[in-house]
Amino acid sequence: MDPPNLLLLLLLMFSSTINAQFPATYCGSTGNFTANSTYQTTLTTLISSISTTNSSSLSYGFFNASAAISGASQTLYLFGLCRGDLTTLSCRACLDDLASDMRRLCPLQKEALLYTGNCIIRYSDASFFGVVVTRPSYLASTTDNVSSPDTYDAAMRKLLNGLLAEAARGGSLRKYASGNESVGPDMIYALVQCTPGLTEQQCSDCLVVGVEEIRGCCVRYTGGRFMVPSCLILYETNHRFFDPVSEPPPLPTPPPSHGKDAMPPPPVGKSNSTRTGIIVVITSISALLVISIVIVLLNVKRKKQPRE
Question: Compositional bias (Pro residues) at which positions (predicted)?
Fold first, then answer.
């Protein structure tokens, strides 16, 4: 493919993706800590535990940890949330990457919050577990318009309201729901999620805010996302919405058996020709058999005719 056509193809591919700038970074306004202080040491230890923890919480899409700051009457809290269809390995990798960004982008801040496409991470010396926080928010949309905004809005509202109720009813380990809704020839795919420490009412309240924000900013477009510290909503009119993250890697193909009773594989490129040869032989035999029967019948008929 020549370069101009390749460039056009790339532009078409990315024109329907979320118009997002990641990681979205909020470094807080509660002040800074001193480099090489016990605050920084504690934070570094907490962040490092993401990649080493054996906690089952990652399999439910979240990570939380806390530790007292040595020599201070403070506790440091760290929390990460992955979209609920990520595998454990993908969730850990997402949080690890985002934690590295956090240390680079907010190197000395006493609190920070970062959003990316598949996960959220935050830390603070003030406890935020079990508290609904809807600021700062992150909103983004695709650039493609839907053909019928009113019809799309009705389908979107129906889908999100159903998912909202389902996610809010989730247990203490996961408050997540996903689904789809048809709208004309298209299909809307969406997921909604809350931090698992929220109550049903708190989760519902957070997602209600998100639904209104999504409808206000993004319902004219084929995709959008709403992300706040306590919940998130993602949707796209794209059949691959769940594919990149929800499918586990395929199992390795077992090696072929070499037992004495195992049949050897057919030579490459021969299987179709072998099958074709068998069919031709059978067809030929059948045809000869039919012709032979016809000849015999004709001879019998001729012998039975009276001589003149």
Answer: 246-268
The domain of 87 spans 17-124
129 inside domain: no
| pLDDT, tens digit, 9 for 90 and up, residues 205-262 | 999 999 999 999 999 999 999 999 999 999 999 878 886 554 443 344 444 444 433 3
**Residue 231 token pair:** 């919940």
Element (H, E) at 190: strand 186-194
- Between the alpha carbon of residue 35 and those of residues 41, 46, 110, 169, 240, the distances in Å are 9, 16, 11, 43, 44
Do 28 and 113 form a contact (C-beta atoms < 8 A)? yes
Residue 120 shares a structural domain with residue 144: no
Residues 93 and 155 in one domain: no
d(CA 276, CA 288): 19
76 plus 38 within the same structural domain: yes
**What is the dihedral angle through the alpha carbons of 275, 276, 282, 285, rounded to the nearest 10 degrees?**
-150
